[in-house]
Design goal:
The protein is of the alpha/beta class. The protein folds into 2 domains: 115 residues, 2-Layer Sandwich (Macrophage Migration Inhibitory Factor); 95 residues, no CATH class. It contains 8 helices and 10 strands. The protein has a 4-stranded mixed beta sheet, with helices on one face. The protein has a two-stranded antiparallel ribbon with strand order 3-4.
Length: 243
């Protein structure tokens, strides 16, 4: 999850309203890409002027705000435009609360390995997954949105397919002393489903039937992404086996 540590001197962010205002603008950065609001943690750490040193000297004139940011839930693409988009979003969030007040500031962003992250003892769901969207709706981590194929109520919606998925995994687990296996959880096959008209889009006639007003959120996966994921799994067989 994004963790912001905001180190600030006396006379800045003294009341709850100023802290809440900045926190809300910070939160928009992340909820804007679909992350649950509760992922966003902002800690304000007030430092005495005796404890703020810059360039080997005490910083006593203009307030200096130092911000350390940890990103865990989502990694930034290794592209210059992606890094610029992220830092621009951070600058935009800080502007009315720091820059416009005449403070000096500096921030940096670290990216933590996602596999070293737990929430209430649980492994957070993959970015963009249905479970993550449900965590966002509930605004809390929850076990009730576990593997859908093992949820009796959900499995009953498609008794010909979903129970078989859980059964296949159980069988593979029972044979792990003889074989290794890996599973890939995808969304609906987006490009294939579009061609087949499963999402209500009739491409030849250029017509569409909107489902639930066309505003409901769902997850999908392109066939090319599935192919890349399978290649990556094979390239990292030891890391992905038996799960």
């Amino acid at each position: 999850m994004p963790l912001w540590l905001i180190y600030h001197p006396p006379g800045t962010f003294e009341d709850a309203s100023s802290k809440q205002a900045l926190t809300k603008d910070v939160m928009k950065i992340y909820t804007g890409i679909g992350l649950p609001p509760f992922y966003v943690v902002v800690n304000f750490i007030k430092l005495s002027t005796e404890d703020i040193w810059v360039g080997g000297e005490r910083r006593t004139e203009n307030p200096f705000i130092r911000i350390a940011i940890e990103h865990i839930a989502v990694r930034i693409e290794n592209e210059d435009h992606a890094y610029k988009r992220t830092t621009d979003a951070i600058e935009k969030a800080l502007k009315p609360h720091v820059a416009d007040k005449g403070y000096d500031w500096e921030f940096h962003v670290d990216e933590t390995e996602r596999r070293l992250w737990r929430v209430n003892g649980m492994i957070p769901p993959p970015f963009g997954s249905e479970t993550e969207q449900l965590w966002a709706t509930e605004n809390r981590p929850s076990l009730k949105f576990g593997p859908y194929s093992r949820n009796p109520e959900f499995a009953a919606l498609n008794p010909f397919v979903l129970p078989a998925k859980a059964g296949t995994v159980d069988y593979l687990r029972s044979r792990e002393s003889e074989i290794s296996w890996s599973s890939l959880v995808t969304g609906a096959f987006f490009d294939w489903a579009m061609r087949m008209g499963f999402f209500g889009f009739d491409l030849p006639s250029k017509t569409v039937t909107l489902i639930d007003g066309g505003t409901s959120v769902f997850t999908a996966t392109s066939l090319s992404t599935i192919g890349k994921a399978l290649i990556s799994m094979l390239d990292h067989a030891d890391e992905t086996k038996n799960q």
